Structures are given as structure tokens and as C-alpha cells.
Amino acid sequence: MRQSTLDMDDLRKRRSLVITRKEAAEALGVDPRTITTSINEGTIPHVKLGRRIVIPREKFLALFADAATDNGEA
């Protein structure tokens, strides 16, 4: 099994406006189904583009900004 190298810092450095559920899951170290559940519950913002669901990168990062500051990462 391939080990993920994508993390929150990688997402912060990107210039793209959106990320995929898979990318969000890799950055958080969780299963993509966890991201899907959170999207369905309304805790992770998303945009539906046709059949595709994407996550606005800045809004996603903002969800964890306070946690990073509390841990001294910011």
C-alpha cells in the first residue's frame, strides 16, 4: 500500500481553488468515506459541479486554522 505524502502544509502551498475528497482525506490521514460523511452532515463545505463534488481549499483550511494555532503550527 502506498503511503500518502500529502499533508495540510501541501494544501496551504497549493494555488488551486478546490481539492478532492481523496486529497482532503490524505491530508487529514483519514478514510475518504469520513470526508464524504462530513460533507453529507454539512461540517465540510463543498461545491457540486455536475456529478463531481469538490471542496473549496481555503474554506477547508479555515476549518483547521484554529487547531493549527492552538498546536503552535501557525
What does this structure look like?
The protein has one domain (8-67): Arc Repressor Mutant, subunit A (Orthogonal Bundle), CATH 1.10.10. A hairpin with a 2-residue loop joins strand 2 (47-49) and strand 3. It is built from 5 helices and 3 strands; from the N terminus they run αβααββαα. 50% of the residues lie in helices and 14% in strands. It has a 3-stranded antiparallel beta sheet with strand order 1-3-2. The chain has helices at 8-13, 21-28, 32-41, 57-63, 65-70; strands spanning 18-19, 47-49, 52-56. It has 74 residues and is of the alpha+beta class. The longest helix is centred in the middle third of the chain and has 10 residues, at 32-41.
Specify the structural class: alpha+beta
CATH topology: Arc Repressor Mutant, subunit A
The neighbouring-strand order within the major sheet is 1-3-2
Q: Number of helical runs?
A: 5
Quickly name the level 1 CATH class. Mainly Alpha
Could you tell me the number of beta strands? 3
Based on the structure, what is the oligomeric state of the protein chains?
single chain
Which H/E pattern describes the elements?
Answer: HEHHEEHH
Strand content: 5-15%
Radius of gyration, in Å, reads 12 Å
Mean pLDDT: 88
Q: What profile does the largest beta sheet have?
A: 3 strands, antiparallel
The rough form would be described as globular
Distance between the termini: 31 Å
- List segments where confidence is low: pLDDT < 50 over at least 5 consecutive residues: none
Helix content: 40-55%
CATH architecture: Orthogonal Bundle
- The number of distinct structural domains comes to 1
